[in-house]
Each structure stands twice: as C-alpha cells, then as structure tokens.
Amino acid sequence: MNSFIDRGQQLVYYNNLKLLQALLAPEVLTVQLGVAAAVLATFFFFVSFMGFYGAVSRSQFLLFMYATLVLLLLLLECALLYYFSSSLVEKGLQKEDGQWTHAIRLTLSCCEHNYTSPELVTPPWSCCGPGSYPSNCTADNLHRKNCQEAITSWLRRYQTGIYALLAATHLILASCSIIRRYRSASRSHS
C-alpha cells in the first residue's frame, strides 16, 4: 500500500478515493450512481449544446428551447432545495459527525472540537484529515483551527471576488443586450 501512496500523482488519486469512501456510505458508491451521473452529464451537455448551436445558427426556436430548459432546471433546483432543506439541516448539519460536518472539516482543515485533553474521547476522524479515516485521529494530528472562524474567514476572503464576478457577468450580459439592440436597430433603418 505504501508503494502506491509514494508515487507522486497517485497520492492525489488515493486521497480523493479515500475521501469519497469516507464521505459517502458504501451503498451509495454503486454502478447505478455512476450511470445516473453519466445520464445527467449527457443531459446537461445536450442542453448546453442546444444553447451553443442556437446562438451560432441564430435559431430563435433553439434559443427559446434552451432558455425554457434552463428556466425549468432552475425551478427544479429551487423545488428540490425547498423539499430537502429541512431534512438537510436536521440530518446533516445538526447531527454530530454528519457528512456535511465532515466535508467542512476536510475542506477547511479545521475542527470545532478541542480534544487536547487525553481523558476526552477520540476526536472525529475528519478533524485530522482523510488519512485518519475511520478511527486514526489523535490529539497529535488534530487540526487546531476553529471551524466557525475558518468559515467566516473564507467568506470574507472571497466575498469581494464573488461580488466582482457577479457584477462583471451582469455588465457583459447588459453590454451584449445593448449591442444586439443597436445592431437590430441599425439593420431596420438600412
């Protein structure tokens, strides 16, 4: 196993595989999940290609269909979020050592627990990183950063960039709309 881990790029693959195995229940990692992901990716490719081809060929019908499908997908996402939001909070975020809690700890390399005293129970595995799954987390390799502070810091760090990206996207779309109106107005007067 160590020779596999020590081979450069395969270390990243091994850690990602171990992370997936740690975050997802074994019954979730099935062939059906892979097939469902492939079908979903094919559908999104089809919708994206419809929008691209509609824009290139200037087909009003394809652009209308693309806009309709994107709007329906947005409404579906909102409905799913509304339907699952209460159970997500109850089962994932409030439950001790839920999948969301592990994902946040692993992503931000933080731990909201203070397990520095030897008389306390073993800290959750995600407080030490994916290498400690399922029960190799000790006070020696514990992340010392508080998760609440890490989340607040992350939001403050990327807040300006997120707002700037949204503003730039808005300006680009508004500019495209103005240019299109100008061109269509100049064609109608010629």
TrEMBL record:
The chain crosses the membrane at residues 33-56, 63-84, 161-179. SUPFAM superfamilies: Tetraspanin. It is found in: Membrane. The keyword Transferase does not apply. Keywords: Membrane, Transmembrane, Transmembrane helix. Signal peptide: none annotated. Its main location: membrane. It holds the Pfam family Tetraspanin. It comes from the Eukaryota. It is a multi-pass membrane protein. This is Tetraspanin. It comes from Loxostege sticticalis (Beet webworm moth). GO terms for cellular component: membrane.
